[in-house]
Write a structure and sequence with these properties.
25% of the residues lie in helices and 43% in strands. By secondary structure, the chain is of the alpha+beta class. It has a 16-stranded antiparallel β-sheet that branches. The longest helix is centred in the first third of the chain and has 36 residues, at 58-93.
Length: 304
């Protein structure tokens, strides 16, 4: 065991106290999340060592311990990367915390924001050519609603298929406030492989376990605006920034001018960086990740 890898609990107590003394709530939250991640990584490490101790063969025991050490280093590296991503997000947000006051009377299930209209009975079809094959993403605005924090939210059914095989199946819930901002109130997400659910990661519901709703599209977006789209620490931490109001995009469905271009990042997935383009009267028409390998383009709109 490399003792230098393992931090004393006393150090974490001091660090936690220091975090609460920081000047802004966003950085304090990022620091506490870092401490939690580090402690979790070390807990997994000691559990792995406990399992290694049961290996009677010295060579296998040594290999087991080396693997546990490597896994710990990888886990701690991810903790640090997440912390850096959260600190950058804090800079975008000006250090402010995120605890929006939700008054149900201020919200409606009628979502007519020009850059994010969600009319029940409408299905948006996107396609992308990926290394795994043809990806098709269908976003269906249903006639169903769900009550969250007293707010009636529109239910959207989002599915992803790769070469015809279902890989993601998600329900999302949205509502619009009086000013015209579209809010995201949660999602029930399933990842699948060969027809079997492999993960529920990313699922959250506003008001449950401290989860906070966020904004998907502003009523009056301006270049430089930054806002949280969701917040459940270590599960759902997407943030968007408005980069442009006059982007031009050509996709199979058509050519669109003066689109709102945003950049989305996440505190959970430090390497995630997505650019989205929103056309007036339509919504999302094009989406691209930072690598350029996946380009989701609008190919069809189906209206019941």
């Amino acid at each position: 065991m490399k003792l230098s890898t393992v931090l004393s609990p006393f150090v974490f107590v001091l660090a936690a106290n220091a975090a609460f003394g920081q000047s802004d709530p966003c950085s304090a939250s990022a620091s506490e999340a870092l401490h939690s991640c580090q402690l979790s990584a070390q807990s997994d490490y000691f559990l792995a060592l406990a399992k290694c101790a049961n290996e009677s063969d010295p060579a296998k025991r040594d290999t087991c311990q080396q693997q546990a050490e490597a896994a710990l280093q990888d886990a701690l590296a991810l903790c640090n990367a997440q912390f850096s991503a959260r600190e950058k997000i804090c800079q975008f947000l000006g250090g402010r915390g995120w605890d929006p006051e939700i008054k149900p009377s201020d919200f409606s299930a009628n979502i007519d924001n020009p850059y994010y209209p969600l009319k029940p009975g409408t299905t948006f079809v996107y396609q992308a050519h990926t290394a795994d094959g043809l990806l098709e993403n269908r976003v269906a605005v249903t006639h169903k609603t769900k009550m969250i924090l007293g707010v009636t939210c529109v239910e959207v059914h989002d599915t992803v298929r790769v070469n015809g095989q279902l890989t993601e199946d998600t329900l999302d819930w949205f509502a619009q406030d009086r000013a015209g901002n579209v809010w995201y109130f949660g999602e029930d997400s399933e990842e699948l492989s060969e027809g079997r659910v492999t993960s529920l990661g990313g699922s959250w519901t506003a008001g449950v376990d401290g989860a906070k709703p966020g904004i998907i599209m502003e009523a009056d977006p301006k270049v430089g605006d930054a806002y949280r789209q969701e917040l459940l620490l270590d599960e759902a931490e997407d943030v968007a920034r408005v980069l442009s109001l006059d982007a031009d995009v050509k996709v199979p469905y058509g050519t669109f001018n003066d689109c709102v271009k945003t950049m989305e990042t996440s505190g959970v997935e430090p390497d995630e960086l997505t650019f989205k383009f929103y056309a007036r009267g339509v919504g999302v028409v094009f989406e691209n990740d930072v690598s350029g390998n996946q380009k989701n383009s609008l190919v069809k709109i189906i209206v019941e």
